[in-house]
Amino acid sequence: MSRPPINPDKSLAGIAVDPQTLERVVPESRRPDGSVRKQLKIRPGFTPQEDVKRFRGTRQAQMDANALPKGHIIGWAPPPTSSASSGASGTQGLSKSAKKNAKRKEKREKEKAETEAVPDNWEDDDDAPAPSTSTPASSKANATTPPSDKSKETDTKDEVSELSSKLEKLETKD
């Protein structure tokens, strides 16, 4: 005959089988102050209220076994997932507002990427051609019509000279 486990399974009420006497007991435990509660014997046949199972008739038990998960729709099958539509499936389950927020976030990220292209220190390279030193209107013009590499250098030098002359004019007016 095999011996019962050293740490037997407890019921909801905390009743376990004593491995030595094979009686049902509430094992001794330690209180928060350090004192020990005595082991309590449970009379044969007694079932505490916590351990009493709810009565279910055979039909009710059968219905519970056949019950569908909460929120399940009868006859509905999830659509097959394909690897071709993996990019679109990320936004498919989102609500309208979530989709709008995602688009706004993408737009903000694009704007950040554009603004990060502008150097932090404007005074580092005065001799080097810098298209970012131009005004916003001229930078838009450069973005719409990209000149060739040689003409790009001359255009930026021209823009720099124009801007410096405009600055001088503004300084003389004050």
Automatic annotation (TrEMBL):
Pfam families linked: Mago-bind
Residue stretches making up the WIBG Mago-binding domain: 22-48
Region of interest (Disordered), ranges: 26-174
Amino acid composition bias (Basic residues), ranges on this chain: 97-107
SMART domains: Mago-bind (SM01273)
GO biological process: exon-exon junction complex disassembly
Skewed-composition ranges (Basic and acidic residues): 26-36, 149-174
GO cellular component, one term: exon-exon junction complex
Compositionally biased intervals (Low complexity): 82-91, 129-148
GO MF entry, a single one: RNA binding
Top-level taxon in the UniProt lineage: Eukaryota
PANTHER family: PARTNER OF Y14 AND MAGO, PYM PROTEIN
Protein name: WIBG Mago-binding domain-containing protein
Organism: Panaeolus cyanescens
Organismal lineage: Eukaryota, Fungi, Dikarya, Basidiomycota, Agaricomycotina
